[in-house]
Amino acid sequence: MSALDKIKKMLKGHEDQAGKGVDKAGDMVDDRTQGKYKGHVDTAQDKLKQQLGTDRDQDGPPRA
Prior knowledge:
mainly alpha, 3 helices, 66% helix, Antitoxin_Rv0909/MT0933, Antitoxin
């Protein structure tokens, strides 16, 4: 079992909280770098949320 699989298993049922954590971490990086890498950070946030299954909108279905 890979590390990502273990993380997904731990996050099961807490996807919203994980998504908020990813957003908060990205915002902190943007703040510390004064937005210099905002595009890269946003891309990383989106990909991480997709991998963790936290890329859901308010209504619940995954984003396309």
